[in-house]
Amino acid sequence: MVRDAAGTRRRILDAAIAEFSAYGIAGARIDRVAEASGSNKAMIYKYFGSKSQLFDAVFDAIVVQTVDAVPIDGDDLPEYVVRLWDRHRAHPEPQRVGLWDELERSSEGMRAEAVVEAARIKVAAVGDAQRRGVVSAAIAPQELLDLLLALSRSGLAPPVSDEEADRYRDALRVAARKLIQPG
C-alpha cells in the first residue's frame, strides 16, 4: 500500500479546521479530527505533535489560504474589502478560528510567522498607495488596514439573500472609499 503523506496531512488539516472552527481549542477533540480525516490519533500526533501545534498549523493554513485567495490591491482597497467579505461569507471557518485564538490564547496565532508576513505585505501595499496619493495618508497604514479588515468582517452573522448581499457590498464599497479618500 502506497502512503500519501501530503494527502493525509491535508485531510487532517481540513478536518482540524472544521473541528477548531466549531468547538474552539478547548472543545476540539483529536478523536473527531481522526475520524473525520480517515486517520488515527497516533498519525495526527506524529504529523503535528500536539493539539496546540495542530491548532497552530490550522491557523497558518487558513492565513495562507485567505491571502492566496484574496490578495490585497492597494490601488482598489474598496474591492479588496468586498472580496474579503465574500470570502468570509463563503468560508466562515477562518474567522471562527481567529476568534477562538483571540478568546482562548490571547491572539497568540496573530504572532505566527505566516500572519506577521501577511500583515507586513498588506501594510506595505496600503503605505505604497498612500505615498502615491491613491489613498489618504490621514490614517497610518496599519490602522487604516485594521479598519478596512474590520469592515470586511461586518454584517456576516445572519444569512442574507443575494439582494441583501449586493446592497451590503455596495455599502462596504462606499464606506471603504470614504475611509481611504484622499483630500
UniProtKB/TrEMBL annotation:
DNA-binding region: 29-48
Superkingdom of origin: Bacteria
Pfam families hit by this protein: TetR_C_21, TetR_N
Domain HTH tetR-type: 6-66
Signal peptide: none
InterPro entries xrefs: Homeodomain-like_sf, HTH-type_TetR-like_transc_reg, HTH_TetR, Sco4008_C, Tet_transcr_reg_TetR-rel_C_sf
Key words of the record: DNA-binding
Gene3D superfamilies: Tetracycline Repressor, domain 2
Protein name from the UniProt record: TetR family transcriptional regulator
